[in-house]
Design a protein that fits this description.
The protein is built from 6 helices and 7 strands; from the N terminus they run E-E-H-E-H-H-E-H-E-H-E-E-H. It is of the alpha/beta class and 194 residues long. It has a 7-stranded mixed beta sheet, with helices on both faces. Helix 5 links the parallel strand 5 and strand 6. The model has no long low-confidence stretch (mean pLDDT 95).
Length: 194
């Protein structure tokens, strides 16, 4: 898959490491990703914002999910080696949220932040990705979606928390304070026994 790029915000003796990634055609400077990063830093975590290999190579589409997940697992393994014994929290927006959910068990994540989880392609609710959202099993997933997201909004019963920001589409234009307020208590919960 080629190299990834990592924007790393380090802190002394981190309570956890948040590894978070972008949507299919996006980058790690999306305002919702930055809102989660800021909350994680405030909670004493280090943050790795990962530009996945396909984006570094200039492609807009991630391609094969299996290869994408394999590349992600290698990236997280390298980060774990740099932060030994530090609890991992995964996160992503849209396609990145799918990756974070699909790989959470193998990574051993404490929790998952799923921004704009794309429940189905626009206009095709029959092509549900609910199984990916449920893939983490007992690992808690916090979903934050816009109320008018054409990719759908997951059912509240399918995650530890589903926060819906009214009148927001797939890319958030406002509500960043809501995102920060939603994730902050979860970071504390996931690292309470660190």
């Amino acid at each position: 898959m080629g190299p990834a790029e990592i924007e790393l915000d380090e802190v002394r003796d981190p309570a956890f490491l948040l590894v978070i990634t972008h949507g299919a055609g996006g980058g790690v400077d999306a305002k919702d990703i930055l809102a989660v990063r800021d909350s994680a830093l405030d909670a004493g975590g280090a943050v790795a914002r990962v530009v996945q290999p396909y984006r570094v190579a200039g492609r807009r589409a991630p391609g094969n999910a299996e290869k994408q997940d394999q590349a992600w697992l290698e990236i997280v393994a390298a980060l774990k080696a740099r932060f030994p014994g530090t609890p991992i929290v995964q996160g992503g927006r849209s396609n990145g949220a799918r990756v974070a959910c699909r790989t959470a068990v193998e990574v051993g994540a404490r929790g998952v932040i799923a921004l704009s989880f794309p429940l189905h392609p626009p206009g095709k609710p029959e092509k549900s990705r609910r199984d990916e959202l449920l893939a983490p099993g007992s690992i808690e997933v916090v979903v934050i979606n816009g109320g008018s997201d054409p990719f759908g909004v997951p059912d509240a019963a399918d995650a530890a928390e589903v926060r819906v920001i009214p009148k927001q589409a797939h890319s958030f234009r406002t509500g960043f304070d809501v995102i920060e307020a939603t994730v902050t208590p979860w970071f504390a919960r996931w690292t309470a026994d660190h």
